[in-house]
Amino acid sequence: MSPTSAKSPSAPVAARDPDELRRLYTEMLRIRRFEESAARAYTQGKISGFLHLYIGQEAIAVATADLMKPGDRVVTTYRDHGFAVALGCKTGACMAELYGKKTGLVGGNGGSMHFFAKEEGLWGGYAIVGGHVPVAAGHAYASKYKKDGAVTLCFLGEGAMHIGATHEGMHLAGLWRLPIVFVIENNQYAMGTPLSRQSPVEDLTVRAPSYRMTSDRWVVRDVFETRDRLAKAIDRAREESQPTLIELLTYRFRGHSMSDPAKYRTKDEVEKWKEIDPLHRAEKELHEEHGVSEDELESIDDKVTEEMDAAVDFAESSPLPDPEHRFRNHYVEDDLAATEG
Amino acid sequence: MAEIQIREALRQAIDEEMGRDDTVFIMGEEVGHYNGAYKVTEGLLDRYGEQRVVDTPIAEAGFAGVGVGAAMAGLRPIIEFMTFNFSAVAFDQILNNAAKLRQLSNGQFTLPMVFRGPNAAAHMLSSTHSQAFEAFYCGFPGVKVISVATPYDAKGLLKSAIRDDNPVIFFESEVMYSVKGEVPDGEYLIPIGQADIKRPGDQVTVVTWGQGVPVALAAAELAAADGIDCEVIDLRTLRPMDTEAVLQSVRKTNRAALIYHGWPYGGTGAEISDRIQRLAFDHLDAPIERVCYEDLNMPYAENLENLVIPSPERALEGIRRVAYFNV
């Protein structure tokens, strides 16, 4: 699918404050440079496992993080590094997790696909497609139960729209009017299968009425627009305890994972999406509309690159987990896993 | 001491724990307005309201997952499966989420929750509704597994399960909800992980749990008539298993028969059998016997079902074989 085929009216953008844009641009750039560093380490054979990169989708995590209040939570898929970086997790700890190190975000238990950072609001990267949707609804159920005012933001790929757990989770959220926002990150391909071969309908928000949810759908080309439209859904959840279904049309510029050369799509298609890459558009706007010089942009990039180099250094110089670590946290009683069997 | 049914004992446990802790709630099909498919939750909706006694649509994966998410956020859900047969469609939520999230998150999340409901064959429900799920839920770390056979155990262990900070699988039995027994008037808890000797004896160790308990006790009576003195051990908790209680008995009797509802292949009996042979090999005088379901899908017809399910008579044959009694 080409980006222009999605009928998405340009929403009026409230403010295009250059300093705001520079801040959001820097955050998006941090994710991209983190992912590129991870890809490099993977290619060099320094990290293993599966590695799914967020390159192209950064604006979504950055806009989301900007809107979250303390107590709000993101529940997402295995393509989870972007949210971790955007939510303020230390990039060193994130990188160390990919390296399977003791200092990793979850101590080397999860790897790329299972990032958790409760304090930062990242309530999980989940690696069984759709399995996290009912869990996210459960977080929202608890918020309604405890009246804590927190909003749960549940992200899923378009590929997750076709599995049963997703339907059940959304169905219960609709039935019980839970304070939750479901955001489909439609990056056009479920691994190598385009949406046209997965779904009888192109617009996935057509399901919203069956859950009695308000919906919204747009092409992610601008971080401000994405933030403004997400904000409406978050407000609806927080103020009125009403769930929303959003479909974001976006694109991953890399393959599904590092082992995927993405031969199922044309160069022309990738180029068309690159034209609306929110990161590049922000950079262009900063330079052309707000007078940010190339030198300044370069210095932002240098600083970000420096951070990611430090993250890699931290990961590489970190120790491996202790052998005893494998027994921990299977149960509240740490000794139970070691004694059973 | 009052004599009450297992369903009443379970209800008392839920009621007392909901009364004591506002974060405990129960969710499942027909638990509220219908008062429970087996009347375990009768009257709870009136007492605690719709937010804490939650009727769900027929969506096991959905509400099991909601339970997981609610537990992570600080609540203590009790998820009722109308039968554990229906837990099969929620298996991913238990296997990949409930059992793993504490470890995956490196201890950031705690999942204090109970999945409960009837397990194993009832009567003439055919293959999809007659399954015993112990082997599946004991087959991976991260959960505790309980199976009860008396009102006393049902109440004391369910209360412990609700207070436990780990996910607990709690097996009941559809054909045993009306079984009566004495329960103390005051509050009590039974620790998870402790077996109970339901009948002392010194010639054959009979290991059982859940719906196997009445079968094993009846078989022990029949064996007594043959002059074989059985010690019947009700494991009550299958994971973590009270291996020492079993070994202690086997060291005395030198013989073991495992009598339970469940398949033989890769079943819970196979695990117990392995522990006995590995840890008490020198004490054994006979091969360990397993009396359980035949390795078949459960037929509907009553005469056929009775052949597949372990009867006291078939259990007696097993006991006689391990005792090298004339069979």
Plain-language structure description:
Chain A is of the alpha/beta class and 341 residues long. Chain A has helices spanning 18-43, 58-67, 81-86, 91-98, 132-146, 164-175, 223-240, 267-275, 278-288, 294-317, 336-339; strands spanning 73-77, 122-126, 152-157, 180-186, 189-190, 193-194, 214-219, 244-249. A six-stranded parallel beta sheet of chain A has the order 2-1-3-4-8-7, with helices on both faces. In chain A, strands 5-6 form a two-stranded antiparallel ribbon. Chain A is globular. In chain A, 52% of the residues are buried. The model of chain B has no long low-confidence stretch (mean pLDDT 97). In chain B, the strands form three sheets. Chain B has a seven-stranded mixed beta sheet, sandwiched between helices. Chain B has a five-stranded mixed beta sheet with strand order 9-11-10-13-14, with helices on both faces. A two-stranded antiparallel sheet of chain B has the order 1-8. Chain B is built from twelve helices and 14 strands. Chain B has 327 residues and is an alpha/beta fold. In chain B, α1 runs parallel beside α7 (151-163), α8 (212-225) packs across α12 and α9 crosses α10 (268-279). Helices cover 36% and strands 19% of the residues of chain B. The chains are: A alpha/beta (341), B alpha/beta (327).
